[in-house]
Amino acid sequence: MSAEKTFLYSNVGATLLGNALARAAGIDSWEAFARQRLFEPAGVTGVTFAHTLSGIPAEAPSGGWTNGRRVMPFSGEDQAPTGSATYITPDAMAHYVQAILDDTVPGGATAQEPRWEVAESSWIGYHWRVQDRNGHRMINHSGGTSTASTQLIVDKEAGKAVMVCSNTGFTGPSIPELAEHLLYGSDKHTPYAAMATMMGAIQVAITAACVLFLVFAAVRGDGPASRLAAGIRSVEALSCLVLAWTFDPWGMVPGWLFGIPLTLGGYAIARTMVRWRDLPSLPGKHLWYFYARIAVALAVVAVSGWLVWPKY
Questions:
Q1: In this model, does residue 21 exceed pLDDT 80?
Q2: Surface-to-core class of residue 136, CB atoms within 10 Å of its CB (0-12 exposed, 13-18 middle, 19+ buried)
Q3: In the 8-state DSSP scheme, what is residue 226?
Q4: Half-sphere exposure of 55 (CA within 13 A, CB side)
Q5: Which of 19, 115, 141, 240 fits a disulfide with 210 by CB distance 3.0 to 4.6 angstroms?
Q6: Binning pLDDT at 50, 70 and 90, where does residue 195 land?
Q7: Backbone φ and ψ of 150, nearest 5°
Q8: Could you tell me which of 275, 284, 279, 270 has the C-alpha nearest to residue 234?
Q9: 119-176, pLDDT tens digit by residue?
Q10: How many H helices and E strands in the chain?
Q11: Rounded CA gap, 308 and 69, in Å?
Q12: In terms of Cα–Cα distance, which of 179, 238, 246, 188 is closest to 214?
């Protein structure tokens, strides 16, 4: 909450709070604090804090982006209190949620009490969101990384809860609304779409740069005056198409828009092929410039290959 009482969730704030609680309790780490003060008293086992990639449970499902690309999952201690590198089995999660329903979770209902109003019929407790909607009081929290999305809704008055987990990252409002539908039969539905995040902005920026180059390549289809120049242009166009597809902003914008860079790149390459026989192998002048362009094109291919190659 800011001075103007505007709510803005922050992973940095959650990390600071978790580590501050551990230090105030005289416990060395957030992991030890969570186990001693939360999971062990509640009888919850099956929780793993992955400090490294090798620490991720073998049975944990792999996740990825909306185009199905698998990406490296989260691990490490730097943001452990946010839960981004915490893995819990379904049975353990069900046990924990039952403890919330029964008020046997350590601290009882204290953390779930509405404390600060952030919108009409919506409050924040201690990291729990409390909402009154359609005659129901929902206690909920969501989570999202580049490889997973989750939503937990607890209705203590009705004595029921639902947990939705997806192995696709940043799915926006679709997962919370699916959870609400499963719990109450809500008809509200948002089409599956990625939410706007910093990673999303990077994806859009890279794709936009690729599209701009493809526009240039299509407009200047008759520009290359030699086979060397045409080959360089074609390689760069193909690299841009691969990057545009791999960095997948198509969860945030309609997927059919990928047809735009595909058409531009296809036209630029096709135009080059049509003119290929009529072009000299090497340019008549400034040959050094084209050798430099070869180096740049190879660097583009190398960087594109490194970015595209699966890391996990």
A1: yes
A2: middle
A3: S
A4: 14
A5: 240
A6: very low
A7: -140, 155
A8: 270
A9: 889 999 998 999 998 889 999 998 888 788 899 999 999 999 999 988 887 655 678 8
A10: 9, 8
A11: 9
A12: 238
Please tell me the number of Cα atoms within 13 Å of 251 on its side-chain side.
27
Angle (CA) 137-141-146 rounded to 5° is 150
Q: Is 103 left (phi over 0), alpha (psi -120 to 50) or beta?
A: left
**Token pair for 238:** 């193909």
Question: Tokens 């019929």 belong to which residue?
Answer: 121
Buried b (16+ CB within 10 A) or exposed e, 209-247: ebbebbebbbeebeebebbbbbbbbbbbbbbbbbbbbbb
Asked if the model's pLDDT at residue 249 lies above 70, the reply is no
The one-letter code for the residue type at 152 is L
Whether the CB-CB separation of 155 and 133 falls below 8 Å is answered with no
Q: Name the DSSP class of 64.
A: B
**Any idea which residue has 């069900």 for tokens?**
94
What is the C-alpha to C-alpha distance for residues 236 and 223, in angstroms, rounded to an integer? 14
* Chain centroid offset of residue 197 CA: 8
Residue labelled with tokens 């009490």: 113
Q: Which of 241, 238, 234, 237 is nearest to 276 (CA)?
A: 234
Contact 179, 202 (CB under 8 A): no
139 forms bridges with which residues in the sheet? Answer: 130, 154
